[in-house]
Design a protein that fits this description.
By secondary structure, the chain is an alpha/beta fold. Helices cover about 40% and strands about 20% of the residues. Helix 1 (about 15-30) links the parallel strand 1 (about 1-10) and strand 2 (about 35-40). It binds nicotinamide-adenine-dinucleotide.
C-alpha cells in the first residue's frame, strides 16, 4: 500500500518523539512492502512563529489531502501570553473540527513490565488492564448553550446537554467497529436512570447491538463505571460514552496504567482518516534533551496502521517490538525503575527498531 501521512511535529518534545515514530513506521513499511510519504505540517507554537496563527488554512489543507495525520504535541511557555485565539491549543481545536473528528479513542493498557507504576493493588493489576475508551468529542454539554443570568436576586447558570440520534449512532459505530478489531465486547456508559440524553443514547446503542450481533454488549451507569474501572478494569474491552463522562473516565483510565509517556490516542470521524497523537503534552521541561519517552507516539503510529489503514499485522509487530524492549529492561527517565537501564529518546527508538 502507498499512504500519505501529514506529520505535525509541533513544539517542545514533539519533534524528538515524532522522529522516532517515523523511523519505526519506515521500518514497518520496509518489512511489509508499503510506502509511506510524509508531508510536514506546521501547527501550534511553531505555526504562530512562522505564520502568526496556530493553524493556517494551507496547513489544514495538507492534513485533509492526506490519508492520516500524526501529531507529536503542541504548546509551551513561549506562547502562554498570546491572546486566546492565537494560542497553540487553538490549532488543535481547529484541526479537530476541520477534520470533522467526533470520536476520541484512548487505550488504557498496562504493560506487565510497568505494573509497579499502577496505583492499583497488585492483585487487580495481575488480572490485566487492556481496554479502550471511545469518547464522543463534539457534542453533549460541552457544546450546548452556556449562560449565566440574574434570577430572583442571585446568579443562575445553565449548561445545556443535548444529543441527537445520528450523533449517538456514529460514535456507537466507531465503538462496535473498534471492538470487532479487539476482544469483541462493548460497554456503553450512561446515566439513563436520570438523563433523557442517556435514555436516547441507550436506545440507539441497543439498536446497534442488534446489528452488530457478533459483539457482546452491556450498559453500565457512569457512577458504577467509575468504581468498576478502579475495582476490576479487566472486565472492559471497549467503553463507549458521551463527551463529559468520557472526559472524566478516560483520565481515570490513563491514571491506572501508570506512565503518561506510554499512552497513544486516536481521533476519528467519517472515513478512515484519523488524527493520532500521544495523550501527553509538549513537556517543555525536558524538550531538546533527548530524555522524552517516544513510545506513546510510536504506539499512536501503530494505532494509525491498525485503525486507519487496516494493517493489523504491522501494528502488532510494532507493539511486539515495544514489548521486547520493555522486557529487556530499557526505560526512559519517566518510567525508570530499579534494575532497569536508563536510555534516551533516540536510543529507545533504536532499540524498538532493532526488534522490529
Ligand atoms: P505535559 O504532558 O507536557 O507534561 C507533564 C509532565 O509529564 C512533565 O513533567 C513532562 O516532562 C512529563 N512528560 C510528558 N510527556 C512525556 C514523555 N513523552 N516522556 C517523558 N516525560 C513526559 O503537560 P503540561 O506540562 O501540563 O503541558 C506542557 C505544554 O503542553 C502546555 O503548553 C500544554 O498546553 C501543552 N499540551 C499539549 C497537548 C497536545 O499537544 N495534545 C496536550 C496537553 C498539554
Amino acid at each position: 500500500m502507498e499512504k500519505q501521512i501529514a506529520v505535525i511535529r509541533g513544539d517542545g518534545i514533539g519533534p524528538e518523539i515524532v522522529e522516532q515514530a517515523l523511523r519505526v513506521m519506515d521500518a514497518a513499511a520496509k518489512k511489509y512492502g508499503h510506502t509511506f510519504r510524509y508531508v510536514d505540517v506546521d501547527m501550534g507554537g511553531i505555526a504562530i512563529d512562522h505564520f502568526g496563527e496556530p493553524l493556517p488554512a494551507a496547513e489544514l489543507e495538507k492534513c485533509l489531502a492526506s490519508d492520516s495525520v500524526l501529531l507529536g504535541a503542541v504548546g509551551g511557555p513561549k506562547w502562554d501570553s498570546m491572546p486566546g485565539d492565537k494560542r497553540p491549543e487553538k490549532g488543535l481545536l481547529a484541526l479537530r473540527s476541520g477534520m470533522g473528528l467526533y470520536s476520541n479513542n484512548r487505550p488504557a493498557k498496562l504493560w506487565p513490565q510497568l505494573a509497579d507504576a499502577s496505583p492499583l493493588k497488585p492483585e487487580i493489576v495481575a488480572k490485566g488492564i487492556d481496554f479502550i475508551v471511545v469518547r464522543e468529542l463534539i457534542g453533549g454539554v460541552y457544546f450546548g448553550e452556556h449562560r449565566t443570568e440574574e434570577a430572583d436576586g442571585e446568579q443562575k447558570a445553565t449548561d445545556v446537554m443535548s444529543y441527537s440520534e445520528h450523533e449517538i449512532e456514529r460514535i456507537g459505530r466507531i465503538a462496535f467497529e473498534t471492538a470487532g478489531k479487539r476482544r469483541k465486547k462493548v460497554t456503553s456508559i450512561d446515566k439513563a436512570n436520570v438523563l433523557d440524553t442517556s435514555r436516547l443514547w441507550r436506545k440507539v446503542m441497543h439498536r446497534l447491538a442488534e446489528e452488530y450481533s457478533g459483539i457482546e454488549y452491556s450498559d453500565m451507569l457512569v457512577d458504577n463505571a467509575a468504581m468498576q474501572i478502579a475495582k476490576d478494569p479487566s472486565q472492559f474491552d471497549v467503553i463507549v460514552t458521551e463527551n463529559m463522562f468520557g472526559d472524566i473516565l478516560s483520565d481515570e483510565a490513563s491514571m491506572i496504567t501508570g506512565s503518561i509517556g506510554m499512552i497513544p490516542s486516536s481521533s476519528l470521524g467519517e472515513g478512515s482518516r484519523g488524527l493520532y497523537e500521544p495523550i501527553h503534552g509538549s513537556a517543555p521541561d525536558i524538550a531538546g534533551q533527548d530524555k522524552a519517552n517516544p513510545i506513546g507516539t510510536i504506539l499512536s503510529a501503530a494505532m494509525m496502521l491498525k485503525y486507519s489503514f487496516d494493517m493489523d499485522e504491522e501494528a502488532a509487530a510494532i507493539e511486539a517490538a515495544v514489548n521486547r524492549v520493555l522486557d529487556e529492561g530499557l526505560r526512559t527517565a519517566d518510567m525508570m525503575a530499579e534494575g532497569c537501564r536508563l536510555v534516551g529518546c533516540s536510543e529507545m527508538g533504536d532499540a524498538i527498531l532493532k526488534y522490529l
